[in-house]
């Protein structure tokens, strides 16, 4: 399940070189070096307040870095699936119309995409009347219609029950296998997410550790951030004195105390 | 046959309804109601400017409205937008009232600028109103899908290479045009009523964004005609009577939709 499907040297889609972000005088991210390559599934994990959302906004292009460089492959097509879609109740929109944003698409393709997402026949239903799981599948289906090179999922499975979460990540892996797109996920569903990933980045203002899921979950820095146990219960417990895999203590960044 | 000035008034009001329908929907969807108020109140400053410096009215009002939009954009992030707009909306209204008092001859018909004077609309005004309405409709039609996506999720829009900031300025420009069109008709204080009430009345009757715009345009036009007729018969101020008619349509639309749902729910 963890075997990378692609050669390690596939072309980079996006590269961050020594990127830092300062918001309102506060250093949110620093020393970020990362690369997402064609066909790779990369997961960013980190406690609340670790800069996950800021990193995502950087990669989408919604935010400019305060320092460093971001290089995108020429003609890179991104698709973004937000954590939630808070549609104002005053905006009437059906699932089918939503699939046609920001341009009209071939009706046959839209219908097929809805069916594949398990939403067949729901094209005329208001988006506000969909369940949480249906909305997540709709967002994913719309994102895939633009045939992205890089699919970005922000806490994609938040709010789903256990079988829903498993089905969601199975779907993500299947989409990658079918289309060859790279996937960048931000999540705190550690166990499930990491199994589906080729590369895991552990974030806490800076990159604490990274590597294959096995390497990361075995590293001292990771256990320092998330606690040593297998369970997700230790997720937000953030110890002050964790040590990096190379032996350097992880000091100097803002330690949010039990930020949950 | 109604008198000429009534025909002109009806055409002016329908022009305003056409301009307000698409923009009003976005004002409702994006919760920009207070923002509309601030811009419309700022128009009074534009009136003072135009009279004091003998500038044409519409460009002066548009310039001041855009300056207001830029001020909101520059200041947002420091205080809550709600507070900021509260400061700017009332400061603009007060400053406009003070500025107008320096200009000879306006004091007497201040209420025409605050509440409009649709019955005195000239042929020249009609041309301005319909040019403005056509420009607003064309602008929003051109940006339509981008505006909707940026309204649903700014991040999703950016990923699709749509700039939420550009789309916000599209709406700012449309709002400045609507204010310039509406100040002669319903006045600075009631323009945002014509933006919000028809759109709100259209909501329960609509299943798509496009249908909501069409319904809002229809409701705004009916409110204009009904308000004009009622004001003529009852000898009441015309602008406020039109807004009252729109409010009645809002109540009727909400009631009809509620009754429809109740009937559907029955076995």
UniProtKB/TrEMBL annotation, chain B:
SUPFAM superfamilies: ABC transporter involved in vitamin B12 uptake, BtuC
Transmembrane segments: 6-29, 41-72, 84-103, 124-144, 173-201, 213-234, 240-263
Keywords of the record: Cell membrane, Ion transport, Membrane, Transmembrane, Transmembrane helix, Transport, Zinc, Zinc transport
Topological type in the membrane: Multi-pass membrane protein
InterPro entries linked: ABC_BtuC-like, ABC_TroCD
Subcellular location(s) per record: Cell membrane
Domain of life of the source: Bacteria
Pfam family, one: ABC-3
Transmembrane helix found in the keyword field: yes
GO terms, biological process: response to zinc ion; transmembrane transport; zinc ion transport
Any one Gene Ontology cellular component term annotated for this protein: ATP-binding cassette (ABC) transporter complex
Function: Involved in the high-affinity zinc uptake transport system.
Family listed: Belongs to the ABC-3 integral membrane protein family.
Protein name as annotated: High-affinity zinc uptake system membrane protein ZnuB
């Amino acid at each position: 399940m963890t075997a990378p499907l692609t050669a390690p040297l596939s072309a980079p889609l996006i590269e961050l070189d020594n990127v830092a972000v300062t918001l309102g005088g506060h250093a949110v991210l620093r020393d970020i070096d990362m690369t997402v390559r064609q066909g790779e599934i990369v997961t960013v994990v980190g406690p609340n307040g670790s800069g996950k959302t800021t990193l995502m906004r950087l990669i989408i292009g919604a935010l400019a870095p305060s320092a460093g460089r971001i290089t995108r492959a020429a003609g890179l097509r991104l698709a973004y699936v937000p954590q939630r879609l808070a549609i104002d109740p005053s905006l009437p929109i059906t699932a089918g119309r939503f699939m046609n944003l920001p341009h009209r698409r071939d009706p046959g393709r839209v219908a097929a995409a809805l069916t594949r997402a398990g939403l067949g026949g729901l094209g005329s239903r208001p988006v506000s009347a969909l369940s949480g799981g249906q909305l997540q599948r709709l967002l994913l289906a719309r994102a895939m219609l633009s045939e992205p090179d890089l699919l970005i999922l922000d806490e994609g499975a938040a709010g789903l029950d256990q079988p829903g979460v498993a089905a969601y990540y199975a779907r993500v892996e299947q989409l990658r296998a079918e289309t060859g797109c790279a996937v960048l996920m931000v999540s705190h569903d550690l166990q499930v997410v990491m199994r589906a990933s080729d590369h895991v980045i552990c974030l806490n203002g800076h990159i604490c550790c990274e590597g294959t899921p096995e390497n990361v979950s075995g590293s001292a820095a990771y256990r320092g951030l998330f606690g040593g146990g297998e369970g997700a219960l230790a997720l937000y417990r953030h110890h002050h004195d964790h040590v990096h895999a190379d032996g350097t203590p992880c000091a100097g960044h803002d330690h949010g105390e039990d930020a949950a | 046959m109604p008198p000429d000035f009534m025909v002109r008034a009806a055409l002016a009001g329908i022009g305003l309804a056409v301009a307000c329908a698409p923009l009003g929907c976005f004002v409702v969807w994006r919760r920009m109601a207070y923002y509309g108020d601030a811009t419309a109140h700022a128009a009074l400053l534009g009136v003072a400017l135009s009279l004091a410096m003998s500038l044409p009215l519409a460009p002066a009002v548009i310039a001041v409205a855009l300056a207001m939009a830029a001020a909101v954009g520059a200041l947002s992030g420091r205080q809550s937008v709600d507070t900021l707009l509260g400061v700017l909306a009332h400061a603009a209204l007060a400053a406009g009232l003070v500025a107008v008092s320096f200009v000879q001859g306006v004091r007497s018909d201040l209420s025409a600028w605050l509440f409009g004077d649709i019955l005195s609309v000239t042929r020249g005004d009609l041309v301005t109103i319909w040019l403005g309405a056509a420009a607003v409709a064309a602008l929003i039609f051109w940006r339509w899908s981008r505006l909707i996506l940026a309204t649903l999720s700014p991040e999703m829009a950016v990923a699709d290479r749509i700039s939420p900031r550009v789309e916000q300025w599209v709406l700012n420009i449309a709002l400045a045009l609507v204010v310039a069109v509406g100040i002669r008709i319903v006045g600075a204080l009631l323009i945002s009523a014509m933006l919000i009430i028809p759109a709100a009345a259209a909501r329960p009757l609509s299943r798509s964004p496009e249908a909501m715009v069409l319904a809002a345009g229809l409701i705004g036009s009916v409110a204009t005609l009904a308000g004009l007729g009622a004001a003529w018969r009852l000898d009441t101020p015309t602008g406020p009577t039109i807004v009252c008619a729109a409010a009645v349509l809002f109540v009727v639309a909400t009631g009809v939709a509620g009754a429809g749902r109740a009937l559907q729910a029955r076995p």
